[in-house]
Amino acid sequence: MDTVIVDARSGRHDMLTAAVRYQESAVEVENLKVCYGEKVAVASLDLRVAAGEVVALLGRNGAGKTSTVETLEGYRRPTQGRVRVLGLDPSKRSEHRALATKIGVMLQKGGVYPGMGAREALRLFGSFYDNPMDVDELVEDLELTGVSKTPWRRLSGGEQQRVSLALALVGRPAVAFLDEPTAGVDPRGRLVIRDKVASLRRDGAAVLVTTHELDEADRIADRIAIMDRGRLVALGSPSELVSRSPRSGQIHFNAPAGIDTSSLAFHISADVQETAPGAYTVSAGRDTGPKNSGDLVGALTTWLAAQGLPLGSLRVGASLEDVFLDVTGGSGEREVGR
Asked: Which of 75, 119, 154, 161 counts the most CB atoms within 10 A of its CB?
């Protein structure tokens, strides 16, 4: 296999060359099953994350995301199946010990002594690794300089998230597990975190992000894996998932509530439904044949202008939220596993 070994002083891990990174699975899950007594949290899961790839793991509460990630991190033993991280079995004590210095784990909450400041915590965590990142550089990159000495308990939720991310990165992980990295983070903080995730990708790290924020997953992930009832129900790039949706040919727009949808449908030769007050969905009728979305948009805007009606937002095609709701069976929450 074509590999390149980089001097440790350069601050980069041994990694595959760009030509073969995506052929190498840094994280491998095969037929994973996790049970708590008779309760099945993960029923049968196959998933791979390549070096230099960001995968977002989505799912409703109880879908099995937490159980999956905890197994990969070595905190839980699989009931059945094969799990490997960087070729090591995290469930084996000797291999987990070797793996611990090669992975970074970002918890959604906690993990820091309440009276400890960010810089102090980073120096402590960095001492656990042979080649940690420069603490001052990491503090600056995550825009924590102004609060680097502020006790954890006095930081805002967004600042705590950025500190948690910094703690996960200080050891230069080859694999990073990030739990809800942008939860409670302001728009500026989100940009900072996205940039850091992109930097991990560029450096050849494999990144597995668990999140409920679909828009964030769409922005940062190369591929999205959606779990439901302990099983993988969708996998692909955001554009692939959206293009495969049965709603991909629909048009969604906002206009004043109660417009004459029958007249509009006749004018554009397509079905029109008011799905909520002022929210409308257009799709080609079965008896009208396929239509170009551009033609439909043109006919739609022409009709609205003729009626003197303002057009609000307009979106062509399905969204990631549409895909998520389709493959998980709606919006209701079901506690099945973790």
From this structure: 161
